[in-house]
Amino acid sequence: MEHNKVDTELQDSYDDQQKWVLDSSTDSRGKIPLRSRTGAWRAALFIIGIEFSERLSYFGISTNLVVYLTTILHQDLKMAVKNANYWSGVTALMPLLGGFIADAYLGRYATVLLATSVYLMGLILLTLSWFIPGLKPCHENMCVEPRKAHEIAFFIAIYLIAIGTGGHKPSLESFGADQFEDGHSQERKMKMSYFNWWNAGLCAGIFTAVTVIVYVEDRIGWGVAGIILTIVMATSFIIFLIGKPFYRYRAPSGSPLTPMLQVFVAAIAKRHLSCPSDSSFLHELTKEEYTKGRLLSSSKNLKFLDKAAVIEDQNENTTTAEKQSTWRLATVTKVEEVKLLINMIPIWFFTLAFGVCATQSGTLFIKQAMIMERQIIGTNFIVPPASLFSLVALSIIITVTIYERVLVPLLIRATGNERGISILQRIGTGMVFSLIAMIIAALVEKKRLDYAKEHHMSKTMTLSAIWLAPQFIVLGIADAFTLVGLQEYFYDQVPDSMRSLGIAFYLSVLGAASFANNLLIVVSDHLAEEISGKGWFGKDLNSSRLDRFYWMLAALTGANMCFFVMVAMKYTYKSVQPSLAVVADRGDDDNVETVTGTNNTSKFT
């Protein structure tokens, strides 16, 4: 009888999980979401749609930014690359603020609405700066010095877009991932595919930007391109609002900094106590009491922090322990969340070198294309330099598709890992390709310089831009592995209440890498001038030595990979306590840890 009662309870729990979404999310009316009517792909497609238009706008501006700064604002190469990197850096670091606001105060959906409005303001101002007489770049078609008013309007517009991106990117991507419940086996598998197809949609926007939009900018006018971008963004925003009844929402959980600080204070206050060998003696809430996410299992690293969960008087009952101040007693889950964030620091740091390599495709690679032969043989059509970035987008789309449809099923059978390979293995694989891309870039640039010297008397004889294709393609393959892996890593491994910030951490890698790239340019140029009397960056590419800069990046990437592998081999993944409903879904205890989405030890090697 007792056995039948337990089976009935498990079956009821399983039935509830199939019908309702029981992960603390709500529907548009604030009620528990019905699985058949909300979330999953029916909601994610609306979200991927607005991401397409945002990437269309962003890359329509960013890939041609160096061209704009050198041709419209008449900046030299060094200044233009610096300004482009500063803007890219700010754009990628702003999500840290936007993600914090989304997780702590506004919620992801509301943050997307606010950020998209700011983004649209930037696009409108950028467009108007080409049509309002007082804001136009010049009085005439040709000018040596642009108007100061246009320069001011231009920078205000692109930094409004940077602010909009800061709220839009982390909130939208994590909001999309929230549409899939981790505790449901089918939706968990969908979520693993979500990041791949998110990037496919993202790359479709990039490809359209660097072909259609860049062509319009170069051949028709920047003002017309601005009109197109504004209309597409406004239309996708309306479509996103139409999807409101299908979304699943999560309430903001307050500042994530306070619980972190409480763990440190409690651990320091009880630093003289010893930790019990059995983690079950540490303080933790029950699954019924914990309603803000999933409970985490205790890990063996950073044991000092476990002291925050030590109950000082083991004779106290559970009720008395729960009444203690959270500044004196933390739960195991809160302690583990702090550990997760600390463990991320070295991973974040050792992916910066990859980020520096990735920034070259939108800056120096494009500048190289500007002075190379881009006319299609047999036609009068000249490919815009920024359109070569389409090779990166196409490479990502093709690589992600092959990875998702071919490699993952094969790897699952070979490794038994539900992802095929671990997240950190995927990130490391991309780093190898980024190293290869820098080596190719160095060899191609040396060939271009030699060709330019041989034909220096002829202004019409330049090396074909097709020579740049391999470095763009290989860097795209690297992005498909590392950037997608970083998105999944930072979303999956952060505490459940900080997932917008998790995406912001991923974006901050690219932001910090842009600033690091600027620093490397300044330092390497200065050192080269001190050693040989001539810097690596001149007023134009033919007086520069980009090949040596690329070799330096290849060397830094190779050294960085060694440290990354060492850190990854010791990494401890998030370990989530299983729920009864999920166990019932799979039917065996051996798969409990896999069901919860992560293993407790690194599988990098």
TrEMBL record:
The chain crosses the membrane at residues 86-106, 113-132, 193-216, 222-242, 345-366, 378-403, 423-444, 465-484, 504-528, 549-569. It is found in: Membrane. Its main location: membrane. Coiled coil: none annotated. InterPro entries: MFS_trans_sf, NRT1/PTR, POT_fam, PTR2_symporter_CS. It is a multi-pass membrane protein. Keywords: Membrane, Phosphoprotein, Transmembrane, Transmembrane helix. The keyword Transmembrane applies. Belongs to the major facilitator superfamily. Proton-dependent oligopeptide transporter (POT/PTR) (TC 2.A.17) family. This is Protein NRT1/ PTR FAMILY 5.7-like isoform X2. The gene is LOC104791664.
